[in-house]
Structures are given as structure tokens and as C-alpha cells.
Amino acid sequence: MTHALPVATPRQTWSWLAGQLAARRLEVALTVAAGLGAAGASVVPVTALGMLVDLVRDGAHSAALVPIGVLVAVIALLGGAAAGATTTMVSRLGERILASLREETVGVALRLPAHTLDRAGRGDLLARVGADVAAVGTAAAEVMPTVISALFLAVLSVTAMFGLDWRLGLAGLAAMPLYLLALRWYLPRSAPIYAAERAAVGARSQLLMESMQGVRTVHAYRLESRHLDAIEGASARARDLSVGVFALFTRFVGRINRAELLGLATILVAGFWYVRAGFGVTVGETAAAAVLFHRLFNPVSMILFTFDEIQAAGAGLARLVGVGTLAVAPTGTRIPAAADLTLRDVTFGYDERVPVLRGISLRVAPGERVALVGSTGAGKTTVASIAAGILRPRTGTATVGGVPVDQIEPGVVAIVSQETHVFAGPLIEDLRLAGPEASTESAEAALERVGALDWARCLPLGLATVVGEGGHPLTAAQAQQLALARLVLLDPAIAILDEATAEAGSAGARELEESALAATKGRTTLLVAHRLTQAAGADRIIVLEHGIVLEEGTHDVLVAAGGRYATLWSAWQSRC
Ligand SMILES: Nc1ncnc2c1ncn2[C@@H]1O[C@H](COP(=O)(O)OP(=O)(O)OP(=O)(O)O)[C@@H](O)[C@H]1O
User: Fold this and answer.
1) Is residue 329 situated within a structural domain?
2) Is 4 among the domain residues?
3) Which residues are CB-neighbours of 286 under 8 A, at least 6 positions away?
4) Number of folded domains in the chain?
5) Structure confidence by residue, pLDDT tens digits, 489-526
6) CA distances from residue 262 to 53, 241, 417, 490, 556 in whole angstroms, order as listed
7) I need a surface site. Which of 38, 293, 472, 528 has the fewest CB within 10 A?
8) pTM exceeds cut of 0.80
């Protein structure tokens, strides 16, 4: 069952946008002023054209035409400057708002419980910060400047038509119902199609990502064709929706053309009639009104034709704002007085139906080293994640020194999980993620403590070598040691190690066990141990099965007891 990330309602999206614009009041006011100036400058020459027509008809001297020509030239220059300024200001405003939205979205995503993100699918989130941001970005940089300039021009042109003569203005407005009817026909049909198109693109990204991440499994089980079929199906759905959008759009264009024809014809026929009947309307005014209306074709078409891009951007914006509506727990600020880790009556399930932890209670005393063992799926990683505050217990509590783990300030509890990620960049910067102020000496000391300094120094540029994606490749064991060195730099009182040695294979495993031991020395440590030699070296062992604590004690006591641990230990020894 998927639990998609939320999509903001139109009301939430508008209020978010209004908040952003309100926060940039001055910039918005200057942009509006520039836009109105540009629109005004392009309306003046048309009204001047009407005056010229009337002057020529009245047989005026050519000298009378010169000031009008000069005025038009000056206004055109000013208008050009204002139009350029409007485009720059609108796109800059849009880009700034988009940048803050992207930061907000990524910020929320990074602080979401891993469980929420897993359930929703990381592909959906990536599609939001990727494809949706691109759609909104294109709209902000390319479409919005044109649309906003077109809106100003449309408003001022209609005002100017009424200024020439109110009857000509009314004639021009005759086309308005047809425009509105076209929009009323188009919008309700296109909005769901756009939302479906974006969702289909998100689903395709999700499938692609899953196939890429699980590429080894896909190869191993020869699932290539099944995955390709699924991706093809998702792509076909996205393509069909795009074709559907375009077909709808072409029908919409036909309706707009009919509205333009009706509007222009009404002005010309009405103007002709007013002039002939002597209603005080001049030929020049009629000509100016017709040109003003004709000049509206482009801006109005621009507004209407870019509606699809605006709608796509709107759907993308709603998906981005939607992420921001997720509740994110505030970062903890409390500092526990003692370094003991306690789980009391903890229950947990990844979904409502299947319980994973069924009443776990355990305590790791300050400075104690406790190993969690149990068969696959027993719940060890889940216990580690709850102890680290990554997952929240459904019932029961996880505390350090009596303080719930999610209320503790960052850096007190740290986990080295199965997913040790090497971030792209110089190795020393990767280490400094744990301590931004760390000196080269302390970074080297951390590497030395976990036995990684020798190989780190032998890299092509030493600690300055770029590692991670696209950089110098590190082995799984080196990546684990790097994660352990980060732990040393962070220096948490409580360390949780989840299979920190599992990636190394038997050759490197013993070395990694020593690295882990060195990194956690003196800390309260909860260790998920798949290699039972690690468990044997711990102060105490807790055996988990089916989400409950089955046995608890030192290695010797548990072996002597002849229970589950003793069975695991003898199986472990027989394979060595
Ligand atoms: N993100 C998840 N979503 C749904 N179920 C999950 C998730 N992670 C783990 N589970 C399930 O919860 C149960 C406990 O998993 P957990 O990873 O805690 O066990 P484990 O003892 O650490 O196993 P392993 O030794 O294989 O890592 C398993 O049945 C597993 O399939």
C-alpha cells in the first residue's frame, strides 16, 4: 500500500503564494509599476495613431504631425526599457520564490521521519524537487513575465478603448463572454489531466528509481523484462496523458479564434455605424479601437495558451507546497543528565496490521556495550531506529537519561546505519559533516582511531581526494570506516551501530569490528550484531525474536543456558 505525499489544496497553495508575495512587498510594487509603465507605453502610440488618422482626414498641415511622431518615439523607447525591466523583475521574483520553496521542501523532506519517506516513496519526492520544480521554474522564468505583461497590456488596452469612446469599449467587450466560455470549457477539463500527467510522471520516476536501486536483484532474478514492462506501462500512461492534453488544447484554440473574430468584427461594424450615424465617434477613434483590440490578440492568446503551462506549474506548485504541509517534529533541544538508554514497553509496526515490535523493554547503562542479536526480521534494525529517534514507538517510550529521544538535542545520540552514504566531495568535507569546525588534525585523529588514516593518506590527493558519486571509489569497508570516523568526530554519548561490519565480508570484518570497538569506546553503545564475535565481545547480549526480548545476559551465561543464543553461537562457530 502506498501513502503518497500530500498535495496542497488550491486554497493552501494561494495562501502560501500570497504569503511569499507579502514578504516581498517592495519588490512586488516595483514590478507592478514597471509592468504598468510598459503597458501604458504600448497603448499611447495606438491612441496617437487614431489622432493622426483624424488629423489627416481633417487636412491638417504636416507640421502638426511631427510632435505626435516625436512623442510616439520617446514613449516607445521608455516602454522598451520598462518592458525589459518588467521581464527581469518578474522572473527574478519568481526564481526567488521558487528557490525558497525548493529549500523549504528539501528541508521538510530531510526532517521527515524516514518511515514516512519510505512509505511515500523517495521517487515521488525526487519528482517533486526535480520535474515539478522544473515546471514551476519554467513558468516563473519564461511564462510568468509574458503573462503578467500581457495582463497589464490587456487591462490598459480595454481602459484605453473605453477612454476613446465608451461605446467602442463596450463593442470590444462583446468578445469577452466567448473568451470566458472557452476558458470555462477548458479549465475544468485540463486541470485534472495535468494533475494526472504530473502524477504519472512521478510514478514513472518512482519505478525507474526502484529498478536502478535494485539493479543487482533485478539481474540476479532475471527480472529485467518485468521491470521494463512496468516502466513501459508507466511511460505509456504519461505519454497518453500528454497527447490528451494537447488534443484538448487544440480544441481550445479554435474557441479562442472565434472570440477574436467576433470582437474585431463588432468594433468595426459598430464604429462604422457610429461614424455614419454621427454619434460623435471619429474614424480615427474607431481605427485606434480596432488596432487596440487587434493588439490584444497576442497578449490574450499568450495568457490563454500558456494556461496549460501555468496549470502544469500550478499542479507542480501544489505538490511542492503539499510537502510543506507535512508535520515535522521540531528539532530537540534537551540535554539528558545521564547517558543511559532505555526502551520501555515499546511496540511498533510499519503498518497498522503487522506488529513488528511487541513490547520491548531494555536498558543500556552509561558506558555499557549491549549487542542485539536475532534472526532475520526479528526487529533488530527497528529497535535501533527507535533508539536513535528515527522511528517513533507506537506505544511505550525510548529515552536517554529520562528524556524522550526525539526531544534530545542533535549530537547526543548517533547511529551508524546499514546505509552508510559517502557524500560527493573531498573526503575531509565528508568527515566534517559530523563536525563542521573540525580541524585537519582532529579529522586525521578520527580516521586514525578507526584505522582508516593509512588508506586515506594513500588516496591520490590524500584527505582532499574527491570521493562519493563520480569521485574516487571507496570500498564498502572504507565507507563504513568513514562513517565510524564521523561518529568519532561527532562524539555522541550514545552510539547505535546497526550492522556496521556487515558489508565487509569475512576478510575485512574483523578489522571493521576493531574500528567499531575503537569508535564506540567509552560510549553507551547499542550494537546490532550479525557477526556473533561482535556480540561475544559485548558487555551484555539481548536476543530478539519476533519482536520480543527472548533472552538477555552475558555471552557466557547465555551459552551456558543452552537457549536460542547458544544455538546461534554453536551454528556460528561451526561455520568458522
Ligand atoms: N520500511 C519497512 N517497511 C515495512 N516493513 C518493514 C520495513 N523495515 C522492516 N520491515 C519489516 O519489519 C520486520 C523487522 O525488520 P527489521 O529490519 O527490524 O529486522 P532485523 O532483525 O533487523 O532483520 P535483518 O537482520 O534482516 O536486518 C521485518 O518483517 C521487516 O520485513
Assistant:
1) no
2) no
3) 168, 267, 268, 271, 272, 274, 275
4) 2
5) 999 999 999 865 555 556 677 888 889 999 999 999 99
6) 24, 32, 68, 72, 95
7) 472
8) no
* C-alpha distances in Å from residue 39, one per residue of 46, 142, 293, 535, 575: 12, 18, 14, 76, 82
* ipTM exceeding 0.90, yes/no: yes
- The grid coordinates listed for 576 are 568458522
168 plus 60 within the same structural domain: yes
Contact yes or no for 489/465 (Cβ under 8 A):
no
In 3D space, the residue among 304, 12, 315, 41 whose CA is nearest the CA of residue 160 turns out to be: 41
* pLDDT tens by residue, 210-230: 888 777 777 777 778 888 888
C-alpha cell at 532: 556473533
Q: Whose CA is nearest to atom 23 of ligand 1?
A: 377
Kindly report, residue by residue over 472-483, the tens digit of the pLDDT. 888 888 888 999
Work out whether strand 395-400 and strand 341-348 pair parallel, antiparallel, or are unpaired: antiparallel
- Name the closest-CA residue to atom 2, ligand 1: 350
Instruction: Report the Cα 520 to chain-centroid distance in Å.
Output: 35
pLDDT, tens digit, for every residue of 101-119?
888 888 887 777 666 666 6
- C-beta atoms surrounding 111 within 10 Å: 12
Pocket of ligand 1 (CB under 6 A): 118, 350, 356, 374, 376-382
How far, in Å, is the centroid of ligand 1 from the Cα of 356?
Answer: 8
How far is Cα 131 from Cα 255, in angstroms, rounded to an integer?
Answer: 31
Distance from the first to the final alpha carbon of the chain: 41
The residue nearest atom 28 of ligand 1, judged by CA position, is: 377
Whichever domain contains 70, its CATH number is 1.20.1560.10
**Is residue 145 helix, strand or coil?**
helix
DSSP-assigned letter for residue 4: P
Main-chain phi, psi angles of 378, to 5 degrees: -65, -25
Question: Rounded to the nearest whole angstrom, what is the distance from the C-alpha of residue 567 to the centroid of ligand 1?
Answer: 22
For residue 5, being part of any structural domain is answered with: no
Domain limits for position 503: 341-575
What pLDDT sits at residue 369? 95
